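Q: My labmate handed me this sequence with no annotations at all. I'd like to see what the chain might look like in three dimensions before we decide whether it's worth expressing. Could you predict it?
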Amino acid sequence: MDGELGCRCGARFELSHGVPRFEVHEEADSRVWPWQRRANDDQWLLDQLAPLSTRDLVDAAIVELGAGAGERIAALASYGVRTAVALEPTADVDRAFRATRHLHNVHVVQGNLERPPLARVFDFAFSIGALAARPEPKLVFDSLIALTPDGGRIAAWLPSRENNEWLIRLLDPMRLFVTSKISPKRLVWLSLAPALLLRGTAWAYRVKPLANLLPFGAALAPMSGRSLTSFHRSVYHQLTHRKLHFPTRDEVERWLANNRLLHATIDWHNNTAWRVGALTSDSVRLTETLKEGA
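A: Here is what I predict for the chain of 294 residues:
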């Protein structure tokens, strides 16, 4: 639980409260939702990582960059994952450790997302939302690639500039000058009212013919079945940061212009966010083909 990690190069790193700590310079991140994820939100998480399926997680080594309070890595670890590593740069790793301590296959590490202190050994590396909150999101995306050897898979989910221009113009000044300066506990309650309004509005989109006529139907119709807690969490996250990065499709395509990536895909998630995925080699499919032939 407490001690020190030593490297043959002479470097020393603190191990405290069960968490190895590398390059620690950041305070707790106010974006972290104060309550744990509910089980019925797991499908929303899997949708964000599509076309990844739970079968891809069986006996896999996975890593999440920007793990927050550990709720996502804990959910995925229950699908037969061999080893799961949650990397978080802020002091919120302590919450992640407490949330996952009972899971034998989850390990929590505090370190820099742009220069992860991890080896290139993971079958699957992913990040949900964290890229949008970092000063240089492309560097975090590059870290996903750096952690997966040939045969690995990467995935990222982040809000898009397309279809969110109105939200950016409305929320950026509010985040910068107002909500980012409010304490997280107070902001939880202040964000409840707009979450209730959004949840109530989404109910109208449950009727498909009506959703096709209403504005933002492509975005709100798939969200209409989500819980109030899920809406509350989304509004809270939108308001906590001083600045969020909403990349265009062209920008994401430039991130994918990497020689090691194959079968790269960019697709919409509810017409408001990008789901990005790629393989680092054809060796996975080749191995599956050989197994089927045998």
